[in-house]
Amino acid sequence: MNMKIGIVGSGAMGSGIAQVASTAGHQVVISDTRETALEVSKNKLAKIMNRLIEKGRVTKDEATGIQERIHYTTDIQDMSECGLVIEAIVENIDVKKQVFSKLEELTSSETLLASNTSSLSIASIASACKHPERVLGIHFFNPAPLMKLVEIIPAIQSDENVVKIARQLIDDWGKTTVLAKDTPGFIVNRVARPFYGESLRILEEGIADAPTIDWAMKSIGGFRMGPFELMDYIGNDINYTVTETVFKAFWYDPRYKPSFTQKRLSEAGYLGRKSGRGYYDYSEGATKPSPKEDQQLGNQILDRVVAMLINEAADACYLNIASRDDIDLAMTRGVNYPKGLLKWADEIGISECVSRLDALYHEYLEDRYRCSPLLRRMNRDQIKFYS
Ligand SMILES: NC(=O)c1ccc[n+]([C@@H]2O[C@H](COP(=O)([O-])OP(=O)(O)OC[C@H]3O[C@@H](n4cnc5c(N)ncnc54)[C@H](O)[C@@H]3O)[C@@H](O)[C@H]2O)c1
After folding, report:
1. What confidence score (pLDDT) does residue 151 get?
2. Pairing of strands 149-154, 135-140
3. Based on CB atoms within 10 Å of each CB, which residue in 182, 195, 376, 384 is the most buried?
4. CA 122, CA 27: separation in Å to the nearest integer?
5. Are strands 70-73 and 84-87 parallel, antiparallel or unpaired?
6. Ligand 1, residues 8, 29, 31, 32: which to mutate, most atoms within 8 A of Cβ?
7. Which atom of ligand 1 has the smallest separation from the CA of 99?
8. CB-side exposure of 359: number of CA atoms within 13 Å?
9. Percentage, residues of the chain above pLDDT 90
């Protein structure tokens, strides 16, 4: 499909998606209201291309081609000939709606309109269009050129064919696509919540400190980064906002309750790597505190966090947010989990998962620890996710 691709917003995500589309051979138009944002985007791409040439990943000619195929503009009207436009502007529903309404006016009726939103409803964005059937969510992860996973999110208004064409196109760009229901956090940002939330709870209860929890999750669990390292990497402000947004969007379901520890860190400006301090100190010469490498404690931490992650994945499956395979694919490709969570549930044993969750529930008597009806049903019927 050799269509022209439009990208609205030349920030972190828009720039990355433009690079992906251009690398796949498309002519790309990228717009931003701020001239400086376009300049930054262009310069950043030039730097990335130089690095890729040095590493031998692209030839000089290929790099030139990738850069030349991208047209930078402050005039959204230049999107008029695009077959697909992906919006990646500020996360604000009113501004997004305005942009979609304008995009519908200036593009052909065949043009697919997509939003890269992480937390807003696609149905709501689509409602700004007279023909909402051509709107869908295409959710890339940061940095878009490196992250394999893309979540495809049909709105209730989306035409099936529109979704099919968009998915095929993104697959052709070498990405792994998964289909997710238009619900808060889609797959990854929903299922991953306990990785942070339960780790923070363990820290707040004083069961272990951040280095010990990180050690347990990495050394015993096989996760690439520990939760506190990862929150410092993502930025505590951003991670906190996602958690709070998901919590509110789920009508304050206690399962997604944010943590004061993280809120205070964010308020204090301890944002993580980008500010030089978060859970850890990143200033020059600072030494990282050592974990308490207690195997029994480590197992206890891992078992608790993984049980909560499995519960979230099972519930997403139960509520048809995505298929079993897509949920496992999303977590292994999107956030590099060592295993698919549903596969992991089978390995641990469904009955053991239910026991762990019930033990937490009985200990705390909090709705946060309620076991998914799907796990309970599977346990009763002796069924596995993969049989
Ligand atoms: N950053 C992430 O990790 C991430 C990951 C996945 C999805 N997203 C989503 O992608 C979108 C963009 O995020 P980002 O991190 O790239 O933001 P960003 O702040 O880096 O970039 C947004 C850009 O949009 C521009 N903009 C604002 N209003 C505009 C308008 N009306 N028309 C044209 N340009 C406009 C801004 O000038 C800015 O350059 C958001 O919806 C966000 O939720 C972000």
Report:
1. 98
2. antiparallel
3. 195
4. 26
5. unpaired
6. 32
7. 31
8. 11
9. 98
Q: Write the pLDDT tens digit of every residue in 113-126.
A: 999 999 899 999 99
Q: What is the pLDDT of residue 1?
A: 72
Q: How far apart are CA 3 and CA 25, in angstroms?
A: 10
| Domains annotated on the chain, with CATH | 5-179 (3.40.50.720), 190-381 (1.10.1040.50)
Residue 345 has pLDDT above 90, yes or no: yes
> For residue 371, which amino acid is it?
C
Catalytic: which of 10, 118, 199, 239? 118
Tell me the CA–centroid distance for residue 88 and ligand 1, in Å. Answer: 5
Integer Rg of the chain from CA: 22
pLDDT at 119: 87
* pTM of the predicted model over 0.90: yes
The tens digit of pLDDT for each residue in 8-57 reads 999 999 999 999 999 999 999 999 999 999 999 999 999 999 999 999 99
- Residue 387: which pLDDT band, with cuts at 50, 70 and 90? confident
Of 22, 26, 104, 151, the active-site residue reads 151
Cα–Cα distance between 256 and 242 in angstroms, integer?
10
**Total residue length of the chain:** 387
174 CA to centre of ligand 1 in angstroms: 23
pLDDT at residue number 353? 98
Q: Is 44 exposed, middle or buried (0-12, 13-18, 19+ CB in 10 A)?
A: middle
